[in-house]
Amino acid sequence: MRNIYHKKTILSAALAVLLLLLFVPGNIQDKVPGIPGSADLCLQAQAEETITLRVCNWEEYIDLGDWDEEETIELPSGDIIGENSMVDDFEEWYYETYGKRVKVEYSTFGTNEDLYNMLTLGDVYDLVCPSEYLIMKLMAEEALVPLSEDFFDTGDENNYFIRGEAPFIREIFENSEINGEPWSRYAAGYMWGVTGLVYNPELVTEEQVSTWKILADPSYARRVTIKDNVRDSYFAAVGAVKSDLLSSEEFKNDPDYRKKLEKEMNDTSPEMIARVEDWLKDVKDNVFSFETDSGKADMITGKVAVNFQWSGDAVYTLDQADEDDYTLCFAVPKESTDIYFDGWVMLKSGIGRDPEKQHAAEAFINFLSRPDNAIRNMYYIGYTSVISGGDDPRMFEYAQYCYEAEDDEEETVDYDLAYFFSGDRDQTDSEFVIEAAADQMNRQLFSQYPPADVIARSSIMTYFNDEQNARINQMWINVRCYDIRRVPWWSWTLIIGAVVILGWFLIKRWLSRRALSH
Amino acid sequence: MRFSRKSLGIPYAVFLVIFVAAPLLVLFYYAFTNGQGQFTLRNFTHFFTDPNTLGTLYYSFTIALVTTLVCLLLAYPVAYFLATSGLRSQSVILMLFVMPMWINFSLRITALKEILNLLEGNLAMHPFLNAVVGMTYDFMPFMILPIYTTISRLDGALCEAAMDLGADSLQTFLRVTLPLSVPGILSGVSMVFLPAMTNYVVLDMLYNSTYIMGSLIGSYFAAYNWHGGSMISLILLAMICIFTLLTGGEEDEPGRGGALL
Amino acid sequence: MWKICRRLFLILVLLFLYLPILILAVYSFTESTNIGAIRGFSMKNYVTLFTTPELTGMIAGTVTLALGAAAIATVLGTIGAIGAFYSRKRASGFITTLNQIPVINADVVTGFSICVLLVVALHISKDSYIPLVAGHVTLCAPFVFLSVMPRIQQMDPSIYEAALDLGATPFKALTEVLIPQIIPGIVSGFALAVTLSLDDYFIATYTKPATFDTISTYVVNATKGAQTTIKTALWALSTVIFLIVVLIVLVTNIRSLHRENREGGRRAEHLS
Predict the structure, then answer these.
(1) Overall average pLDDT of the A66-94 stretch
(2) pTM of the model
(3) Chain C residue closest to A30 (CA)?
(4) What homologous superfamily does CATH list for B51-260?
């Protein structure tokens, strides 16, 4: 009887194990691309006519649709609403326009470093959306497929990107070069922005947030946050360390200002790294947290007074705070600001020489650049599209829709966006002026479309080569470490005392046990 | 081949060689090479000459030491009172003390964070205190259980004999119970000290942005610097070995496994 | 007086251990997003917890991983213990020593070393789940080994010999005589393995595919995030896990509780 019972138990245990073993690989199979599951095999017949496009984008960086009716954006040129996800809409549009089926395999990444790691460890994508410095790195590594000539044909009405890209962005993409080739040959911009400081105007004055030095200011001890990544923090640190030089009139009036600014802000000499390390160590003892995402919530809940932020997330933070009737502002320090871009690039490892795939990839970029889609993405994620619309008035209409002051607004200012929408910075009588509420000068409008003077003092941050990277990463680790030279003497005494007592005790014990066992 | 019980050991031995021995050998390789695969002592000398890494060793050591002491001061009385109380449902009450172990530590620290936030106002103001409170909260059950097991297994006759020989209860405790419970204390210490030096998530979650030994590994990992990370791992491993050699060979030690079940 | 002090101390330590969890449990039933003022009763956190695909997927993934890794670890650890016990002294010493390493090693180091071997040196993609499962099995198997070993040592060796003498093949003797005797050790080893895998953060974080999350890696990332709905849904998760743990502990202890009550009662009689 006993025996039977045991047999049963073993049998069922073995069965359970077997089931688990069967279950786990099955589960894995579904999730790993490249290992065809049975469902994929059935679809293979169809797959031959379908182009598969593997897209990898930032998390939460595209419209997923499913808007409420009341979210409809009513523009003079027509209503815009996101019903389906952008990816579904693209698949449908591509079939209608080009008569071919395309299937987008959409996945996301968290940081540029993650994406780069995914690529080097063998993940294959056709189209990815990294930030400018990773684009530069990929260009330098010759990992990218150049955009086709057709993509730049302004005559084709489906080429929304080239017809709508903001002139000043195009200027940057054409003038920034890697190995003698401009970015624009390989990359099509998606979103852009600058770095700055979100602050609570009740606690901090405009004067105080006009410099990166506030992050190390002890009067805001544990009430400021900084980004938990070395590049952003390095930039802010350089700005603070070189504050006097950067804000001097002499430097600003230099005919070669922009070139020199870029050089200063990308200074990675050992002396500079050492000074940055010292400054960041002060910051470490002064900040509430090193954050990537939580700073937004900490700012809204009032835990912190100043939050180093990207302009796109600043818009989101300010919007959220407004919902709670809590006013926050955004400022860009006077020294300089990092102007950043996320752009689409096609990978050799994915696209290869497949012209159909490349066509689909470029069509995907164009579809995202169609003004109504650019607006949907902007609305959904808060960042600013590189698209100004060209002949299409909707991009500017959307800016007006968001920021034009109500009729009963008492105090208004004229906010000139000509630099973005026409590329003409000197025009006196611009048609791209928004009459905005006065407080928008340091709020959402300012964050979404920073004014021309902010753009003038912006600098791109170039990519670091392996050696610079190693030094800067080491510097970042040093910043977060505890410097042994700062250990107070009483602590040394206590530690040494504790170690001696513990060691003495342990050795005595060990000896006595040895004596016992002999 | 004829089936024999001995051959059952082979798959497990192979498994251990592949997943325990081989990774350690690879750690050695990476710790003593540079990016080009050449032999170097730079990682080693860097750790012991750089004030930042030495400072990290100091800082994690301090946190671990304070945490272990606080844990011990709280856990020993708990274990002692429980084991000597003659309470009816001793094991159920013991269960109460070790039950938090089964709840994922990240969730427990989330809970603690909310409370500390309420008590302290600005969490970031007291990074060291947060670290110690968090670690104590996290690891205390690991200290209570082994001490309890040791004390409850003590022969009551020993204490009675001490009493009969004229010792008062304090003397009995100091001269009999305490020395005899040292194995339990050591086993508890070994289960608290090392995790307290390496569990950087507790610090991260409680707004302490200073690195400890574990975070160094994490940051080297994030920067794809396998060589630096391997060296830190080896140094930690060496510390564990020294500690085990000094305290090791305990018969009947209720190890980590024993503590969990 | 002394007795009251002792009780008070125990209660204070218990409060320290449970207050955070209990307060979180209370707040998980409200609409509050911060501990402080209580805002209206609501089950919304529980709805979010069980209807958000991201959250349910993460919970299912964690449990699947824990059961799968524990199953493999149990098989490996058990046959390892049997093999080691009957091997020559040197072989068994070799196994026992290697087995100790993951037990005393810091999880960070175990996770990092497995990642370096499998992903960096051997280029096995994390997306294949092989590093993750291997890591968890490495974490768990030694504990299964340790929990099975004492059972084999306590076993009467003559039973197995008797089975052989009575004509059983060694394999039959193993499955029908030896293993049934050590079943309690195997079961507790399995339970231990599941617990360890569920609690693990460090091994998972170094070996998991980017798109997969266990409860701990998810919670740690979520606390860095800005979404309050997720944050409060995690309060609900912590409450659910707490209740499950209480339930399991109650069920497994109800028998020993009964027995102890009886014994305790007897002891009390004895004293009076």
Answers:
(1) 92
(2) 0.84
(3) C128
(4) MetI-like (1.10.3720.10)
